Amino acid sequence: MSQPTNSRIRRQYVEEGLEAALNRRAPRRQYQRKLDGEQEAHLIALACGEPPTGYARWSLRLLADKAVELEIADEVSYQTVGRILKKLGRQTLLELGSGACWWVRGMVA
């Protein structure tokens, strides 16, 4: 345990008691979702489709740029795209393959 962590826990114990020292505080910041479910479905359908001409496959940056271009979202970072696709699962995306996302396309059609 580092010295700053040790000091922080000791201070919490003295000021707020054992329970506060043992348990983490709830985050103070509220996070807004970048994309709603429908936008995520559009993004997944885009990822399952054919990549742009000149590219063998979609990159996270290409997907983010295309999502903005197609007005799926006002702005979206490649990190957000990665988190959305990670939720779906790498194995699921590999099993679906390019152009095989009929179930997603049905949701957004």
Reconstruct the topology from this structure.
Layout: H1 3-16, H2 18-22, H3 37-48, H4 60-69, H5 78-88, H6 90-96, H7 102-108
Helix pairs in contact: 3-7, 4-5
Structure summary:
The chain contains seven helices and no strands.
Order of helices and strands: HHHHHHH
Provide the gyration radius in Å: 21 Å
Write down the domain tally. Answer: 2
* Helical content (DSSP H or I, runs of 4+): 55-70%
Task: Report how far apart the termini are.
Answer: 53 Å
- In one word, what is the shape? elongated
Beta-strand fraction estimate: under 5%
Structural class: mainly alpha
Q: Uncertain segments of ≥5 residues (pLDDT<50)?
A: 102-109
**How many β-strand stretches?**
0
Q: Could you report the average pLDDT, rounded to the nearest whole number?
A: 81
Keyphrases for this structure?
mainly alpha; 109 residues
Question: Could you characterize what this model shows?
Answer:
With 109 residues, the chain is mainly alpha-helical. The protein folds into two domains: 1-27, no CATH class; 37-108. Helices cover 61% and strands 0% of the residues. The chain has seven helices and no strands. The chain has helices spanning 3-16, 18-22, 37-48, 60-69, 78-88, 90-96, 102-108. α3 packs across α7 (102-108) and α4 (60-69) crosses α5.
